[in-house]
Amino acid sequence: MIDAQTGLFSLLAVLVGLIARRVLAPRPAVPTAPVYGPAYLPPFVRGVLAAYRLGANEDEFLLSLRCDYGTAVYFPWPLCQTVILESNAIKRVYEAPSRILSFFPIRREMQGSAFGAPYWQDKTLLDDQFFPTHSRGMQKGQLTVPLQRFIAVVRDRLDDLAVQVDAAPSGELTIKLAPWIVETYFEASLAGLFGPHVRDAKGISPAELFDAFCKFDRAFPIMASGLVPPFLLEKIPDVKEGRIAQDLIASTFEAWIRDGFDGLEKGVVRDMAEVALNNELGAKEGGKMLVADFWALQANAPYIGVQLLLFLLQAPQDLRDSLLAEIDASLSAATAASDSDSGEPLTFPHLAQTLPLLGSCITETLRLGTSTFSIRVVEQPLVLPTSAGEKHPQIVIPGGNARLICATRVHHLNDEFWNGNAWEWDGRRFLDRAESETEGVDAKQQEQEQGGEGRGWRSRRANQVYGFGGGISRCEGSTFATAELKSFTSLFLSTFDVEVISPVGKAEFYKLYEPIKLAGVQGNGFRPRRIPGRVGMGAYQFITEANEDLEVTIRRRGRRTA
Asked: Residue 538 sits in which domain range?
């Protein structure tokens, strides 16, 4: 009996010691992010609930997270990710070195999950060859000829449209804005990076290739998420259709590679395919690798182009007048500075230097027209500042292969950061005032107008728009995409007077469109409703019914001068 009692007391003593050790153990100096959802629910239920709410209404859910959780929140399985929600913390993430936050593992995984590369785990091949080759090839100095090819196709498309306008008895033509713009960008950008003959070896038509892109793009968010097990993924109808379309695209590029890259003497696309060939992966794997460039080329810039033009057409008259004056001056200067032997006058330097207002409008459209999730692997613990009013001044994101996401959409809609009008499209938001406009303004007023950040603060704030992502994962094609947007918009608006046929008042208006505020405009403007389920995928795309409904009237504006 004594031995039994002694054993029992010993066991109790051990248990009390363990409990005391747990209770009295020092807490970490910096807490981790709170876990999403009611504490009484199992973690996996909270994770599934987060995934559902994110897909159902992205803006509402993300903004509610910022209100309820502050700087960051952790989503349990199946997401298993910490979402960063505050502007300063997002900026800190983008500034973090790759030894703390790594992007390459995410990039490699996507090559496998979305693009079907069997070698996606080969760090030497991807990190040391494919990725550096792509980075070098997307530098501005390597894209001069691709930009010329892009603009040449745009000019041809505009000339064809002008012929139709001239043939119309009334001198005006009604077109469906979104399909025409997307088709123009599709053809022009494909010729830009891949050359004019990429479809010839396979014998595929423009319509067939575009249809394949649309089917692959529809499946892309599911495939790229990595959340669905492979044995289930391939049973999803959109994914099955997307894989067939992906094979068609890849086989088109494979045939072109085997044909000797007809029409493309050099460039990033050829360089990437040649890495595959030099490593004896073959033309088939080279074609599959090029699907990634093809998707990135077509999935974002065309749809920003649609939004940009729609916002401009609804903007205040004084902004439109200023923009047309800027475009006319830019094109005239380009013509004056070139001659018949110098090639395309709209170059990267010219577009960058002569179109500041258009640049501001593009940046503002990226701010309101995108949702980008920048994903990182947390290699080492990362301490992030919290915002005023939160319980702790800092939080820590633990290291050890944890996943972190910057929800840039929350930052773009942060009224505190954007001077109280984050939801309003303001084409001049990033345009610095000319010195002549500040003459006679007292120092205090100038300081207020400069936001306390000194002269040039408006244009500097453009760096805090993350439509192209940020840090080490910033889109390497952003320079080319911006030049596409500037050149297309300039040439389109210099050729035609364009007027939106307002859908306001139609029975299905609120089903097809969503309201949007525009600075200097009484009442709301509108844009087509977004396709659901593309959370964090970049540029918003619009529902088919709205694209088919939205029309504009175009008339000749007069001959462009460049």
From this structure: 132-369+438-556
Question: What is the rounded CA–CA span in Å between residue 347 and residue 338?
Answer: 11
pLDDT in tens, the chain (562 residues): 445 555 444 555 545 454 545 444 444 567 999 999 999 999 999 999 999 999 899 999 999 999 999 999 999 998 999 999 999 999 999 999 999 999 999 999 999 989 989 999 999 999 999 999 999 999 999 999 999 999 999 999 999 999 999 999 999 999 999 999 999 999 999 999 999 999 999 999 999 999 999 999 999 999 888 777 777 888 899 999 999 999 999 999 999 999 999 999 999 999 999 999 999 999 999 999 999 999 999 999 999 999 999 999 999 999 999 999 999 999 999 988 876 555 789 999 999 999 999 999 999 999 999 999 999 999 999 999 998 788 888 999 999 878 999 999 999 999 999 999 999 999 999 999 874 454 444 444 444 454 555 678 899 999 999 999 999 999 999 999 999 999 999 999 999 999 999 999 999 999 999 999 999 999 999 999 999 888 889 999 999 999 999 999 999 997 555 6
> Nearest to residue 306, comparing CAs of 50, 478, 488?
488
- Domain membership flag for residue 23: no
Domain count, the chain: 1
Q: What global pTM score does this model have?
A: 0.91
Could you tell me if residue 247 is inside a domain?
yes
Tell the burial category of 425 from Cβ atoms under 10 Å away from its Cβ (0-12, 13-18, 19+).
buried
Domain of residue 515, CATH code: 1.10.630.10
Distance CA 479, CA 483 (A): 6
| Domain contains 378 | no
Which stretches does DSSP call E strand in 32-110? Answer: 72-75, 81-84, 101-102
